């Protein structure tokens, strides 16, 4: 049983992300936790230490959140009719990040799937603020689904790596599950920096080859910026899912803090899975 957390603000992008999760894991037994958080735009201090009934606004927000979650649950059951899937709704007066963190721990969540679109919807923003923070703090894998993404089976997976970390089966397992379900090919891409792999990198590559087995195809890309390399690979080959490991010493960490990203135009047009280093 896979436990998948799907935060929603009831937007189209949030629904697209949930739809992606249901279709990507259609052959797996899953419990989907539909999460919505709410908080008054302006609230008085006594609201936090007393009863929401003192103001009444909390009750209205709670009722609205719960009602919309139940409607969403019923819609998913009616539209997808998958006996492998069950749904739990969860409404909370909390910040989204705080509630995601608590739910991942308390419910032993295996995967978070969410939309990428920020509140502004600005094209030059790669991910919304919430998505960035969830990815950076998550203790489990996260799949971020871009707006207006029409579902396509993840047959071709792109997995950029620098071979700097030792890959454990637990780390790679989420990718293997998807690959098994969709007979996917995993394209492991190493961007050549002009230097040969050192002994540790060679060891990590061999281990990764063993873990991925026949599902993987290994690519050596000429000396290039990782962003340009990913863009070029997407342009030359059809990719349905981008996978990276959240490693503090590699590209993914810089992805969220370097303003140069916007200038280069790194736009993820396919779902993006981030694996936490365990």
TrEMBL record:
Domain of life: Bacteria
SUPFAM superfamilies: Adenine nucleotide alpha hydrolases-like
Domain UspA residues, every copy: 3-146
Matching Pfam families: Usp
Family membership: Belongs to the universal stress protein A family.
Name used for this protein in its record: Nucleotide-binding universal stress protein, UspA family
UniProt source species: Kriegella aquimaris
């Amino acid at each position: 049983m896979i436990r998948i957390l799907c935060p929603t603000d009831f937007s189209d992008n949030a629904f697209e992300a949930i739809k992606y999760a249901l279709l990507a894991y259609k052959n797996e037994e899953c419990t989907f936790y539909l999460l919505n958080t709410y908080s008054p735009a302006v609230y008085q201090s006594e609201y936090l230490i007393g009863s929401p009934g003192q103001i009444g606004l909390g009750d209205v927000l709670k009722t609205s959140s719960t009602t919309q979650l139940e409607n969403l649950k019923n819609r998913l059951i009616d539209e997808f009719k998958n006996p492998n899937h069950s749904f739990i709704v969860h409404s909370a007066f909390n910040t989204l990040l705080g509630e995601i963190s608590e739910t991942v721990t308390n419910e032993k969540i295996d995967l978070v799937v969410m939309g990428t679109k920020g509140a502004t919807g600005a094209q030059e923003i790669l991910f919304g603020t919430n998505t960035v923070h969830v990815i950076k703090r998550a203790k489990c894998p996260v799949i971020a689904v871009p707006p207006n993404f029409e579902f396509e089976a993840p047959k071709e997976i792109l997995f950029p790596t620098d071979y700097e970390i030792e890959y454990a089966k637990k780390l790679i397992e989420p990718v293997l599950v998807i690959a098994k379900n969709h007979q996917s090919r995993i394209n492991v891409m190493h961007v050549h920096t002009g230097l040969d792999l050192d002994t540790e990198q060679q060891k990590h590559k061999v281990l990764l080859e063993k873990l991925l087995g026949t599902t993987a195809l290994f690519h050596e890309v000429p000396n290039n910026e990782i962003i340009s390399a990913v863009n070029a690979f997407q342009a030359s080959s059809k990719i349905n899912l981008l996978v990276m490991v959240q490693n503090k010493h590699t590209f993914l960490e810089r992805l969220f803090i370097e303003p140069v990203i916007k200038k280069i135009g790194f736009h993820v047009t396919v779902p993006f899975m981030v694996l936490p280093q365990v």
